[in-house]
Prior knowledge:
A: 11 strands, B: six-stranded mixed β-sheet
Amino acid sequence: NAGVMQNPRHLVRRRGQEARLRCSPMKGHSHVYWYRQLPEEGLKFMVYLQKENIIDESGMPKERFSAEFPKEGPSILRIQQVVRGDSAAYFCASSLDLATGEQYFGPGTRLTVT
Amino acid sequence: AQSVTQLGSHVSVSEGALVLLRCNYSSSVPPYLFWYVQYPNQGLQLLLKYTSAATLVKGINGFEAEFKKSETSFHLTKPSAHMSDAAEYFCAVSFGYGNKLVFGAGTILRVKS
């Protein structure tokens, strides 16, 4: 059973460009979470999605950031008009059993904004 | 607001020595508790979890953690450190069904030969 897949692993964007980060959950998992890890900081929750629904986006910046998890295909975290402060590692996690809250993490996408 | 505190951003032990990484949480309800390990430039791997069953939880790679409700703690231990244990360790809590994980700031473990 393949783990959580994220691509690309590394992404370089210039200020003002768009960044698209993809996450394929583990097989059978329908719950996806996105977290951001800024340099020298722990992971911070951004958004929780189920298929076609955003359940909790309390950690998402109000502007420029959006997420989706369509019926078919991977979950996408989209950052428009990137700024240097968006440089971070973005991790996706998926979950099968909500009763325990256990989440499985992907390898992350490291975004660098130049 | 719920929070997680990891005491010590860096811990250094000698190979073969006891590893103790501290984690305290604040919550008015019993949480689910987790320890994750992160190696450089990699994702997080689950070490162990507490979900209201036994208070002493055994995980992978010889790690274990004890949930102490009275102290609101969930410290991670390993009797004998190995060089391969050098990594960053994160304590995390989840406060309900399907809820997000709230992470501590992390502790970098260094193992000296």
